[in-house]
Design brief:
Bound molecules: zinc ion
CATH class of the largest domain: Alpha Beta
CATH topology of the largest domain: Rossmann fold
Structural class: alpha/beta
Number of domains: 2
Helix content: 40-55%
Number of helices: 9
Oligomer: single chain
Strand content: 5-15%
Distance between the termini: 38 Å
Length: 252
């Protein structure tokens, strides 16, 4: 954690110096981006897809206004609330892909700032208790070493730093929740297959704080967050919220 904070500070200083010579261009359209914090121009920023109507519990996108989606009305998930800054649709998908799979860290930095801005705004308006600790959804060490980083951990550190700048310090805990079993990629699996795939995939290394927010880039079925929330609740957690940059429609 301390190392990440140091990297973040060095990152900020390096960005300032770099942009003194090379003004930023937009990650999406390559036009000049006036906002030095974001690398996305005002036009592309306003084109990012809003979530629209969604389930108040799991943020599943809905065609019409209703408080809960079909699945949450049948069985409530283990987490209390999902906050998704955007719908997972172009051009946001482009930013996520270039961050995760092309290792473009400026895209990750932009996503972190977008999530930080959106959560700060959301918690100014909503009654949800502010979490004490942010917990990034862990990758299995094998996958993390192949990718070179855990996108959720980088996002969590960016969000915590931005909250601290706004006078609300948040801790990031990257040790409590571990991914101990390698699982198949969830893409293409049904909901039932996803549940089976995740059995025994995570483990806690200690007691849980009272109020946490799980952090990830994209939520699709919610199965991973649900499994992590189940473990945290078992370990004494009172409230598990989930903060994601984008919510995709759930597979059937
Ligand atoms: Zn642009
Ligand atoms: Zn729901």
């Amino acid at each position: 954690m301390r190392l990440t904070a140091l990297n973040n500070r060095l990152g900020d200083a390096a960005r300032k110096l770099w942009f003194g010579f090379f003004p930023p261009v937009c990650l999406l359209c390559a036009q000049p981006a006036a906002d030095r914090r974001l690398d996305i121009c005002a036009g592309c920023r306003s084109d990012l897809p809003a979530l629209g109507e969604h389930c108040q519990r799991c943020a599943e996108p809905l065609a019409q206004q209703q408080s809960l989606c079909g699945r949450c009305s049948q069985k409530l998930p283990q987490f209390e609330h999902v906050f998704a800054a955007f719908l997972y649709a172009p051009p946001l998908t482009q930013l996520v892909t270039s961050f995760k799979f092309q290792r473009r860290h400026s895209a990750g930095y932009a996503l972190g700032q977008l999530l930080a801005d959106a959560t700060l705004e959301h918690y100014r308006q909503q009654p949800w208790p502010v979490p004490e600790v942010l917990i990034p959804i862990p990758l299995h060490p094998w996958r993390q070493s192949r990718r070179g980083f855990n996108q959720a951990a980088l996002l969590a550190c960016d969000v915590a730093r931005q909250w601290s700048r706004n006078g609300q310090p948040l801790d990031v805990d990257q040790r409590l929740l571990r991914r101990v079993r390698r699982t198949r990629a969830q893409t293409g699996l049904t909901l039932a297959q996803r549940r089976i795939n995740l059995r025994g995939a995570f483990r806690l290394t200690g007691k849980s704080p009272q109020r946490v927010a799980l952090i990830d880039d994209v939520m699709t079925s919610g199965s991973t967050a649900n499994e992590c929330a189940r473990l945290l609740k078992q370990a004494g957690c009172e409230s598990v919220q989930v903060w994601v940059v984008a919510r995709a429609a759930r597979p059937r």
